[in-house]
Write a structure and sequence with these properties.
65 residues; mainly beta; single chain; YjzC; 4 strands; four-stranded antiparallel sheet; globular; YjzC family protein
Length: 65
């Protein structure tokens, strides 16, 4: 079983790093204009995203192919 890669408001960051908003649709064609980027430390609580349908994902794992 692997580590979770998407997080919601109120979840705790498992590792330090930069996290960005991603859309609810996991499609290569769906892009968010001007997504929020936040720097988190391990254990920090994720804030509310700009849109209730978005989630947080570590920036290095949120790349579009």
């Amino acid at each position: 079983m692997g580590e979770r890669t998407e997080f919601e408001e109120g979840d705790r960051a498992p590792n330090p790093g930069v996290y960005v908003e991603v859309g609810e649709a996991r499609s290569f064609h769906t892009q968010i204009e001007d997504p929020q980027r936040i720097t988190m430390n391990k254990g920090d609580i994720f804030p509310e995203p700009k849109n209730k349908n978005r989630k947080w994902k570590k920036a290095e794992k949120a790349r579009v192919h």
